[in-house]
Amino acid sequence: QVQLVESGGGLVQAGGSLRLSCAASGRTFSSYHSGWFRQPPGKEREFVAAVSWNGDNTRYADSVKGRFTISRDNAKNTMDLQMNSLKPEDTAVYYCAAGLDSLEEYYYCSGYGCYERVDYWGQGTQVTVSS
Fold this sequence. Notes:
Elements: E1 3-7, E2 10-13, E3 18-25, E4 34-39, E5 46-51, E6 58-60, E7 68-73, E8 78-83, E9 92-98, H1 103-107, H2 112-115, E10 120-121, E11 125-130
Parallel strand pairs: 2-11
Antiparallel strand pairs: 1-3, 3-8, 4-5, 4-9, 5-6, 7-8, 9-10, 9-11
């Protein structure tokens, strides 16, 4: 069993930066491909970024590529999302997730059919970017 807890959200001005962290409990977290999703107000949850179980490979949504960086530290059981050059459209609740079978599955994940295949979700952290 893995439990995920996000932290680091908050209010930031456009152009600013935030760093989100996902702390995992359970010794098996390091064996899972993991990622970040977000849910903007009034919209569906969407993929943001994913990292392979060993940290060697990453995948990003086109909307955040070049601005966000995902990383993980399996020794500390953590996964981070560094967000730079934030835009108002980045405003959302951000969720960490673990358990899909590949980074491609994360990239194309949308809709409840996919969300149900994610083994573990965090509770979410709010990120608000003001213009």
